[in-house]
Amino acid sequence: xxxxxxxxxxxxxxAVLALLSRFGAADIRELPEQASGHDSVRETGRMELEREIxxxxxxxxxxxxxIPVAGDLLHIKKPxxxxxxxxxxxxxxxxxxxREEHMARLEALEETxxxxxxxxxxxxxxxxxxxxxAPWRNFILPAKEDNRLQHLALIGGSxxxxxxxxxxxxxxxxxxxIFAYECIYRTELGLAVIFAVPRQLRGRAARxxxxxxxxxxxxxxxxxEVGDYPRAWRELEEHISAARAAREALEGQARELAVNxxxxxxxxxxxxxxxxxxxxxRAIYELRHVYVLQAYVPRKRADRLLETLSGRFTIxxxxxxxxxxxxxxxxxxxxxxxxxxxxILTTFALPLPGTDVxxxxxxxxxxxxxxxxxxxxxxxxxxxxxxxGWLIWGVGVERGFRRMxxxxxxxxxxxxxxxxVFGGFFGNALTEITGGAMNFPTxxxxxxxxxxxxMLVSVATGVVHVFASMAVxxxxxxxxxxxxxxxxxxxxxxxxxxxxxxxLTDIQIAGVKLGTVLAVLxxxxxxxxxxxxxxxxxxIFSGLGELYGVTGYLSDFLSYTRILALSLATGVIALVxxxxxxxxxxRGPQIIFFAVIMIFGHGLNLALSALSSYVHTTRLHYxxxxxxxxxxxxxxxxxxTVDSSRYTRxxxxxxxxxxxxxx
Length: 663
Fold this sequence. Notes:
Blueprint: E1 2-8, H1 13-23, E2 27-29, H2 32-35, H3 43-73, E3 85-87, H4 89-97, H5 99-133, E4 152-159, H6 162-174, E5 180-187, E6 190-198, H7 202-211, E7 215-216, H8 222-225, H9 229-258, H10 261-280, E8 285-286, E9 291-297, H11 299-312, E10 315-321, H12 342-346, H13 360-375, H14 378-395, H15 399-422, H16 429-433, H17 451-479, H18 483-489, H19 491-502, E11 508-509, E12 512-513, H20 514-529, H21 536-547, H22 550-559, H23 562-584, H24 591-629, E13 648-650, H25 655-662
Parallel strand pairs: 3-13
Antiparallel strand pairs: 1-9, 1-10, 2-9, 4-6, 4-7, 5-6, 8-9, 11-12
Helix pairs in contact: 1-10, 1-25, 3-5, 3-9, 3-10, 4-10, 5-9, 13-15, 13-23, 13-24, 14-15, 17-18, 17-22, 17-23, 17-24, 19-20, 20-21, 23-24
């Protein structure tokens, strides 16, 4: 990693940031002057910068909320596995140049959808009004001028049921009111009733009926006021039809505007890139006539970047090769076969520069080995390889998900190999189907027939795994110039652990067991030289505390028996599934049920076993491996780039090709 300090003209800064973003190899970090509290940016410039960042963040939030809505309007189903749309850099830039136009369309879509929501509310109110009016839609009240009603008042409404009606009648009787009533409409939802009372008793009767839960006549429109409910019903139906037509027209307009969904995605990604560039300006030291920019760049790409910058801008550069230090960002670079395992490492911790080394070259093969050993079935490994291979090269999944698929793909290849070693092909499916006439080859032994042997193999591989992590720790000590410390604190544990293991054998030297000799030598080295204390007593007591750690090693070795457990679980469940399928039989019509049991059962077993293998293999590395060789705490290399977009992916494959296209 190289540290570049660029000095240039302020008017060139936006274009420089744009080029760095497209180059995708410059991690801009704060300068020491700013880190010490010196603020060189004019306050007005800072405020404008923050306002622009806030405006872009607001626009991105609006776009992110409206893009899925536009997809729903266009009836675009969300895919099970999201793959970014491939676009050219020119298309992304074109979306940025039409920012105002796209935002105007977004605003129009937002307003149209708001109108749709209001239209739905109006329609809902009208429908609720129709439900209320339904009991009266065929009823016409006598006119108020009717001579027959000269001395009577009519009070109409609805009850939820006969019980409420009887309660109202009882209340009217209790109030000693003179009345008559008639039920004019009855449905499952209730009944409509009209009470006739003397005109002078209308007020008292209305209060009594209100307390008896009488829902009054609808009386909002002129037709309802005069009691012409058939006309009111017709008018309401016309209003509902008009509201529905208006809503459908607005939804059509919304669908027309939703066609811009692809442009919204492009604009979102363009804004994300531009916002990142503006946020990077916070770390840039700006003066009235120059700016100073500090960035970390991978050494193999620094020359190309400087050549491109100097060819386009007036710029001066100070270049410095970075020594490993905690403030230097971490960029993991591994072989393409090992690169996917970086996803496992980064979810735990990044190596701390100057302290740790990259454990991926050692960790990667062990991870695939343990995953395959836990799954250990050729049939399951084949299915998992086909599935993950289809996701990687068929669907084209990206980023972290692609890396995880690559991890599982490699593990599935190892699982197929262990299937031959332990004789597993969908459990014992071949034996069951052929009635024992054919058996899947077993190159070594079957764990279900000899679980003790499998347990010993699991623990033995665990010892190798722990020793490998200790070797990585020794290598890290040597790179830090602490070889003597590794010799005093790590190497003796090799002697102790090997000695304890050899105690189980009869190997002797001069009549003394070799295991005893090695264990004593290792313990003595830790007691006498394991501590940096000068006081001999302190050194010995400190060494005794270190020796107590042998219990931790032993418990770690025993934790590798989970390999046995998972291997047996996979095989036993497969065996049970095969037995169930064979009970049904596969000849004649039974083959349908046979196929269902085999497909569903082995599919479920594969999913559970693969998940368990992944979880427990990861656990073995987090607890038993990384704990001995990785301190962690490094900061990730996070360059400006256009490849971090959410919805689109730049077609040009190599960053250097993108930079060359800008020249």
